């Protein structure tokens, strides 16, 4: 077929529709111009490189793939859990003595699972003119959530770092502005504390997403291209999975900062302080997802902090909103930090 670099993989990427940018010309299927949407529904493309979840075992990767593909259009007898497990056991048996089904975290040991999927297909062989449908949204979301929970339990380092960073920063700011909320002469200090809170929630959440999300792009592209799930299901699962940890970290941070800085000991004010902080973190996460989807880790690490500078400028910190030139006032309406700061001050 040709030496390495001759374009074999690129040709297959183009023919399958996996690569569409910087491509010219027309592709014909059975003498007719290819309709890409219809073509993708009738085919499945196995890429050259395996992109798999490294924190899942081989057996778990197979079961997750089966759950994505065994949807409501599959025969009833094929949905039986025992039958599905038997099929997966056949697949992992093709890897050797079966010991590798529990490997994870070592890419060199994760064998060519896509090749085995071809040998033991998880879908019914499509009859002529049959369109392979994706499973329903609920099944996609449920499977993505289950996979995310497994990964979250095993990626303990990142979880501990998130909790640790919030505690350390909260203690530092709390002692730096200690009793700042209880003294009328330190109004400016308390104002600076509020802005520091915003920057902490914004930058830590945004940069975490920018650094981790691009590593998922290869898996996301492959699985979405092969109709494992829709983008709506994927992003919904990402958001839902992060809510508990984001809420927990934000709550710990708020408790430490709020009471060390002697803010008013009122339940309503504490709840509003916590809610504003959490909403700012969620907005920052959404921006991080957008940057991570557009750029790689290197470029995203540069773009994300730079994009935060206008948000800081138009938040009213340093330059009050009434002092902004008329031709720059529009910026204050798109700065989520401005609304967060106004919420803090309004307490």
TrEMBL record:
It is a multi-pass membrane protein. GO terms for molecular function: ABC-type transporter activity; ATP binding; ATP hydrolysis activity. This is Uncharacterized protein. Belongs to the ABC transporter superfamily. ABCG family. Eye pigment precursor importer (TC 3.A.1.204) subfamily. GO terms for cellular component: plasma membrane. The keyword Transmembrane helix applies. It comes from Phlebotomus papatasi (Sandfly). Keywords: Membrane, Transmembrane, Transmembrane helix, Transport. Its main location: membrane.
């Amino acid at each position: 077929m040709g030496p390495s670099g001759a374009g074999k993989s690129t040709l297959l990427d183009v023919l399958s529709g996996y690569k569409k940018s910087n491509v010219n010309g027309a592709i014909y299927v059975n003498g007719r111009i290819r309709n890409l949407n219809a073509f993708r529904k009738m085919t499945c493309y196995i890429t050259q490189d395996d992109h798999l979840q490294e924190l899942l075992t081989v057996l778990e990767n197979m079961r997750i793939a089966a759950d994505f593909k065994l949807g409501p259009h599959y025969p009833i007898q094929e949905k039986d859990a025992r039958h599905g497990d038997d099929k997966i056991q056949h697949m992992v048996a093709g890897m050797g003595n079966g010991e590798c089904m529990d490997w994870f975290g070592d890419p060199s040991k994760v064998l060519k699972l896509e090749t085995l999927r071809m040998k033991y297909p998880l879908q019914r062989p499509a009859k002529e003119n049959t369109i392979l449908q994706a499973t329903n949204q609920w099944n996609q979301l449920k499977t993505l959530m289950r996979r995310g929970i497994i990964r979250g339990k095993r990626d303990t380092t990142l979880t501990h770092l998130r909790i640790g960073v919030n505690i350390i920063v909260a203690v530092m700011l709390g002692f730096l502005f200690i009793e700042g909320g209880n003294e009328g002469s330190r109004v400016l200090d308390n104002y600076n504390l509020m802005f520091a809170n915003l920057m902490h929630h914004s930058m830590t959440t945004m940069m975490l997403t920018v650094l981790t999300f691009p590593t998922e792009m290869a898996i996301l592209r492959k699985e979405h291209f092969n109709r494992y799930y829709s983008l709506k299901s994927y992003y919904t699962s990402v958001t839902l999975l992060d809510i508990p940890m984001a809420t927990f970290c934000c709550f710990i941070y708020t408790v430490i900062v709020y009471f060390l800085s002697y803010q008013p000991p009122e339940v309503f004010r504490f709840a509003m302080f916590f809610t504003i902080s959490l909403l700012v973190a969620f907005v920052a996460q959404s921006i991080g997802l957008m940057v991570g989807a557009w750029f790689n880790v290197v470029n995203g690490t540069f773009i994300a902090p730079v994009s935060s500078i206008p948000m800081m400028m138009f938040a009213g910190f340093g330059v009050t909103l009434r002092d902004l030139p008329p031709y720059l006032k529009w910026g204050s309406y798109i700065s989520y930090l401005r609304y967060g700061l106004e919420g803090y001050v309004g307490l």
